[in-house]
Amino acid sequence: MTAPRRPECSVPLVEVSITEFDLACLPETGAVLDQLLALRPQQVVIDLAGCRHIDAAAIGLLLDVHRRMIRSGGVLAVRNPNPRITRILQTARLDQILPVHTDTGAAPAPVTEAGAAPTAAVPAPAAPGGPPAGGPPPPGATPRAAAYGRAAVTART
């Protein structure tokens, strides 16, 4: 006799704040993104508000995450890149592949059913030596995981 199947869990929205996004921190950032993609989120938002630079390796990782999200029926978006990063994304034509948003103080509308409350939980070890990278979470956000390398994961509730 087989055990009854559990319905799949659904994670509507996962946000990741990245403060450094280049070849040097790609292993840590890639590990965080691998773990959050295992949750099969409907939408992943990568907040670059605290990031000053990205390089070709980071763009490659964004494209890989985008491809994986599309395969699972999800959406990857980039939020709050500074003007320099915006130009890099435009030069790489990433802005034509991924949604790129700039907050004006309002929370982004997640890609979910109407009325669904976005939540996420990413298992993470405690960050040695302090709070998650990128500073405190935005108002209304609940920290769900400590920093992994230089990426911090938060979920809006």
Q: Indicate the radius of gyration in whole angstroms.
A: 16 Å
The count of helical stretches stands at: 3
Could you please say which CATH topology applies here? Transcription Regulator spoIIAA
Tell me, what's the shape?
globular
Calculate the terminal CA-CA distance, rounded to whole Å.
39 Å
CATH class membership: Alpha Beta
**CATH architectural arrangement:** 2-Layer Sandwich
User: What structural category do the secondary elements indicate?
Assistant: alpha/beta
Question: pLDDT below 50 for ≥5 consecutive residues: which ranges?
Answer: 106-150
Strand content is: 15-25%
Give average pLDDT, whole number: 74
Overall tally of structural domains: 1
Report the sheet with the most strands, covering strand number, pairing sense and barrel closure.
6 strands, mixed
Number of strands: 6
Give the CATH H-level superfamily.
STAS domain
Pattern of helices and strands: EHEHEHEEE
Strand order of the largest sheet: 4-3-2-1-6-5
Biased composition (Low complexity): 105-124, 142-157
Domain STAS: 1-98
Organism: Micromonospora lutea
Pfam families: STAS_2
